[in-house]
User: Which sequence fits this backbone?
C-alpha cells in the first residue's frame, strides 16, 4: 500500500482536464492505497480572489471531490489553510530553495508574463508551498496532470537536499502522470492545455456546464480539414476529442476509429456531446445535492483537517528537531 496525495486549487470552476488528469486517478488510487486529497485555498490566493467567491469555490471543490467518488471514510479529505504546518514547512523550505530554481518554473514564467507588473511574491513561491504539501505526509506518489510535473520534481529535489543536509527526514515522492489524459488540450486551441484561466470559455468544459453549453462547445471545437476520426498525434484537435471520448465513454481508440469509418466530424462531435452529457448530468445532480448541505461539507472538511493537523504536526516536530530550533 503506497501513500498517494493530490490537491486542487479552488479558483473558478473545475474543468474536464482537472477531472481526467487528477480527480479520476485519485479516486482510483483510493481502492488499494492511502490517499490524502485537499483543497489548496492558500495556493488560490497567489492571484487575487474575492473572499465570497473563494469561500464558495472551496465548497464547490469539496462537493465535486465527493460527487466524483472521494470517500472521506477512506481518504483524508481536508482544507489546506486549516493545517498551518503547510505554511510553516513552506517557510523552512524557502530557506533551502534557490531563486534560480523557482525562476525556471514554466508555470510561473507563463503566469508572470500574463500578469506583467502585478506578479505577487506568492505566485513565485507557490511551488515551495506545494512541496511542503507533499513532503509533510510521507507521500510516495502524486497523481497530477502533466503541467504539475516540474513542481513535483522540485519537491523531490528539496526532499533529497534536506535529507542530505539534516538527515533522513522526508520520503522522496514521484509524480504519476497518465499517459493518455495527462494533458487535456483546449477545445478552441489544441496546442495549449485546457485551463480555467483561458481567455475564452470555449476553451474548456466545466464540470458544471449545462447540456446546451457543452454541446455548443464540442460542436465548435477546433479540428482539421482531414475529416477522419483518429488518434493521431500530428492532428492535436481530433486527437484531444478522441482522448476525451475514450475516457468518458470507456471505449478504446481503436473502437472509436472503427465506429467512425466513413463518417465525418459532425457525427462524432454529436456523439461526444451526448457521451459527455451522460457522464456529467448525473455527476452534477450529486454535486448539487452536496452543495445543498453546506454544513455537512464543512463538517467533513473540519474532521479531515483535525486528522491532517495531527499527522502534519508529528512530521514538523521531527523537522524542527533536525534543523535545531526545537529546544
Ligand atoms: P490545479 O488546481 O491547477 O489543477 C489541479 C489538477 O488538475 C490537473 N490539470 C490537468 N490535467 C490534465 N489536463 C489539463 N488540461 C489539466 N489542467 C489541470 C493539474 O495537473 C492538477 O493535477 N499546484 C497545483 C495544486 C497543488 C497540488 C499540491 C497538487 C497544490 N499542492 C500537492 C498535487 C500535490 C495546481 O495548481 O493544480
Assistant:
Amino acid at each position: 500500500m503506497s501513500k498517494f496525495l493530490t490537491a486542487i486549487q479552488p479558483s473558478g470552476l473545475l474543468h474536464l482536464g482537472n477531472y481526467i488528469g487528477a480527480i479520476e486517478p485519485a479516486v482510483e488510487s483510493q481502492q488499494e492505497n492511502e490517499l490524502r486529497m485537499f483543497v489548496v485555498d492558500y495556493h488560490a490566493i497567489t492571484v487575487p480572489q474575492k473572499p465570497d467567491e473563494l469561500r464558495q469555490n472551496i465548497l464547490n471543490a469539496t462537493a465535486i471531490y465527493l460527487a466524483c467518488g472521494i470517500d472521506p471514510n477512506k481518504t483524508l479529505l481536508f482544507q489546506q489553510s486549516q493545517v498551518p504546518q503547510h505554511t510553516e514547512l513552506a517557510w523552512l523550505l524557502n530557506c533551502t530553495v534557490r531563486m534560480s530554481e523557482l525562476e525556471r518554473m514554466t508555470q510561473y514564467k507563463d503566469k508572470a508574463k500574463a500578469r506583467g507588473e502585478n506578479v505577487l511574491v506568492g505566485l513565485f513561491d507557490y511551488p515551495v508551498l506545494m512541496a511542503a504539501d507533499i513532503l509533510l505526509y510521507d507521500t510516495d506518489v502524486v497523481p497530477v496532470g502533466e503541467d504539475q510535473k516540474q513542481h513535483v520534481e522540485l519537491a523531490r529535489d528539496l526532499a533529497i537536499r534536506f535529507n542530505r543536509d539534516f538527515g533522513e527526514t522526508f520520503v522522496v515522492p514521484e509524480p504519476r502522470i497518465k499517459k493518455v489524459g495527462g494533458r487535456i488540450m483546449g477545445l478552441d486551441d489544441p496546442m495549449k492545455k485546457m485551463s480555467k484561466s483561458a481567455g475564452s470559455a470555449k476553451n474548456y468544459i466545466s464540470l458544471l456546464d449545462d447540456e446546451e453549453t457543452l454541446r455548443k462547445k464540442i460542436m465548435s471545437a477546433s479540428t482539421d480539414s482531414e475529416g477522419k476520426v483518429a488518434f493521431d498525434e500530428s492532428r492535436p484537435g481530433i486527437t484531444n476529442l478522441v482522448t476525451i471520448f475514450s475516457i468518458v465513454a470507456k471505449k478504446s481508440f481503436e473502437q472509436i476509429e472503427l465506429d467512425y469509418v466513413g463518417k465525418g466530424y459532425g457525427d462524432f462531435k454529436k456523439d461526444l456531446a451526448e457521451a459527455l452529457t451522460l457522464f456529467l448530468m448525473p455527476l452534477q445532480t450529486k454535486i448539487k445535492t452536496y452543495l445543498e448541505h453546506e454544513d455537512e461539507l464543512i463538517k467533513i472538511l473540519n474532521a479531515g483537517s483535525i486528522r491532517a493537523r495531527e499527522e502534519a504536526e508529528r512530521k514538523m516536530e521531527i523537522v524542527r528537531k533536525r534543523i535545531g530550533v526545537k529546544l
